């Protein structure tokens, strides 16, 4: 069989499965309004294309809804860090921090706080645009706050190097307004607004010591009612240094209930902290405090920083994150109730008013029928835009990719770059979150190039990384598997394997098991997967979990456009001895990308 024919067979065998998991009812369009149509199924993300298989629980890497009226935590088993959430009508909306990744500020929707769908992003690029044209690990969008006021959705978010910004939209799917600075400055983080009953508006925020020299305190400002400016220099309303045992007080969320002002804020650090509640009859304090959620004897370390929401039926719930290293900050849902003494408690009350996380619990009661959904992971690249699960490492250039150059395939251009040798520095890595503790991801790709040093593949990326894929070595295409330790250069994990003449396609797979231990495998002849290299641990990035990505790059250049030492051969020249942006034929094609539970037959056998 010809190479073209083999690839068509692979597409026929896997395309429909991959397409149905991208995810008809799970990842499709949402209604334009926050209020559903009378005939709309609550929780449905869209419809299944005729001829596609209905997605099932078995297709998904993780399902929080147990199907018997209960749910299991985490409800979002991926790096949806620093969540904030609100309810508008029958829908709950959630936003999360994204740091240097683009698009930023994802907006998720749910009707029951358990089944979630990504419906859009509030940021199509980061500002300042030029600053974020290269990966700025650990910078960018930190913990946001989401509110609905005066008929609009508002997201206040911090960039610790540039200040506090606000974006608004009448439709949570977008379009969102251009980011507007509310307060420029360094070290201002975790903002949250409150519009009071008397028309006054306020904003509370925390501090990043790495930028400002101080932390462990919360500052409150008067804010213009239109949310565009702060009206005073601010006042410290809670100083963690005055509270025994408090460190890293941050992430405040400001509410008002029955005449009390409440600030819900975490302390103690990302990995092992707790959730506190502060209350006062005056927004300016003084505030009294209580720890309302902590790890206790559960396996859920650092259960803190999140959102209090109330269902239409009056039930209170609390969403928070748990830092899980390479998996990032996953999101848990805790029942919340008000004790007789007037304080809230989240999770299982130990009798003293301090809660501990629940692992399994009865779902929130909501009206209408809901469906099992999860944020999309798989992609068959049949749309006109990239799926909402994908992110770049910096502000994106449309010249990096195409879904029209090869219909029903993703084309990534092999662009020469002075940082092509290190995927941590390469902006054009297209990645997504790890979707579960254990899962398998598979893709089918080919490399079309005559440029020595051009390469493409599948990468597990963090402060360390490893990738498997194809590279053009002058007179041949080779299958490679390479790794890079922290602050180190790449090296071969296995000896490169030449592909047979005329063959430039391969299927690639990574299997991830508990502990984020990864194993690469490849299939070069359609006879099955062969493991490549030794198992290796995924590692977290800067304030984010590891990501799983696709990439293509040309050879490394010397920073002025010339080919770096060690790269020779058939390299396109632009007439000034510099490397051209990439030949028209220098491209990697990805036929599909499929994620599922570990051991999924559809991933291994191509059915």
UniProtKB/TrEMBL annotation:
It holds the Pfam family Glyco_hydro_43. Keywords: Glycosidase, Hydrolase. Residues 378-560 form the Beta-xylosidase C-terminal Concanavalin A-like domain. GO terms for molecular function: hydrolase activity. The keyword Nucleotide-binding does not apply. The keyword S-adenosyl-L-methionine does not apply. SUPFAM superfamilies: Arabinanase/levansucrase/invertase, Concanavalin A-like lectins/glucanases. Belongs to the glycosyl hydrolase 43 family. PANTHER family: BETA-XYLOSIDASE (PTHR42812), BETA-XYLOSIDASE-RELATED (PTHR42812:SF12). This is Glycoside hydrolase 43 family protein.
